[in-house]
Amino acid sequence: MNPSPTFALLAPRLPIFGCSVYDLNWDGALSFVNELANLPVGQAHVTFLNANNANIMLADREFREVLGRSIVLPDGVGLDIASHLLNGEKFVANLNGTDFVPALLTYMVTPRRIGLIGGSPEVLAAATAGFQRHAPWHRFIPVSDGFFDKGDCTEMLAALDAAELDILLVGMGTPLQEKWVDSNIRPEHARVVMSVGALFDFASGRVPRAPSWLRSIRAEWAYRLWLEPERLWRRYILGIPVFLYHVLRHKLSERKDLPGGSGRRHPAGGTKA
């Protein structure tokens, strides 16, 4: 599932709780993933780390190991706070999946076959149609909603084989989607696989985006909490203090033995404190 070693060395990264997170600007990240899709062999799993996912990672060893085999991009102001305190610098850009994936679809000028897995049947159909309008030179294929048998994926994998995809978008929620991709999806299914969380809900129009001014100050999480308080209050009201506790704990303990080390990881593979 890992990308080419050359790409891994070229892309700078910053460690968050031992997870190596790619530190790229928008142009660099779009070009990077586009080039991964152009590779003739291998496969890359692209996912996004935010404060909630970081909390899960610290409690779930299997999820942490999956992230270690993935291309992890930074999502949200929480990652900036953590990196500023732990590494002495923020991430160059906020590459949240809700904005990054549609931008990537526009950036890719070569027509691609792009599959979707996840969501309810209605959300999947609406998201597929929305993406097709957004980037009509690609072909979007609704492979399956998210309610298939996770224990027996024989029919699902056969459908993926038949679809002959270049890119696969999987939206089943963290950490289920990342673990499922890592265990089941292989290079013959798609060259690039992206775990996209709730993206299909936004792409389908089921969940509206926050006003632009809220997005500009990176506070869309507050808007989502306002829209769905019963579903999201644990993630934000409880999760944010837990995340900040972990940041302070790691800062105070100065644990140098975590995977990924400390300090910024540069293209040549070196670090600086």
Describe it for me?
This protein has about 270 residues and is α/β, with parallel strands linked by helices. The chain has one domain. Helix content is about 50%, strand content about 15%. Helix 3 crosses helix 4, helix 5 packs parallel to helix 13 and helix 12 packs antiparallel against helix 13. The C terminus is likely disordered.
Percent of residues in β-strands: 15-25%
Instruction: Indicate the overall shape.
Output: globular
The main pleated sheet reads as: 6 strands, parallel
Order of helices and strands: HEEHEHHEHHEHEHEHEHHHHEE
Q: What share of the residues lie within helices?
A: 40-55%
Biggest sheet, strands in spatial order?
4-3-8-7-5-6
Radius of gyration: 18 Å
The quaternary organization reads as single chain
Number of strands: 10
Tally the structural domains. Answer: 1
Catalogue the unreliable spans: 266-273
Given the helix and strand composition, which structural class is it?
alpha/beta
How many H/I helices? 13
- Head-to-tail CA distance between termini: 30 Å
Describe the structure using short key phrases:
single chain, 273 residues, alpha/beta, six-stranded parallel beta sheet, two-stranded antiparallel ribbon, 13 helices, 10 strands, 16% strand, disordered C terminus
Topology:
Blueprint: H1 5-10, E1 13-16, E2 19-22, H2 26-38, E3 44-49, H3 51-59, H4 61-68, E4 71-74, H5 77-87, H6 97-107, E5 113-118, H7 121-134, E6 139-144, H8 154-163, E7 167-171, H9 176-184, E8 192-195, H10 199-204, H11 212-216, H12 220-227, H13 229-253, E9 264-265, E10 271-272
Parallel strand pairs: 3-4, 3-8, 5-6, 5-7, 7-8
Antiparallel strand pairs: 1-2, 9-10
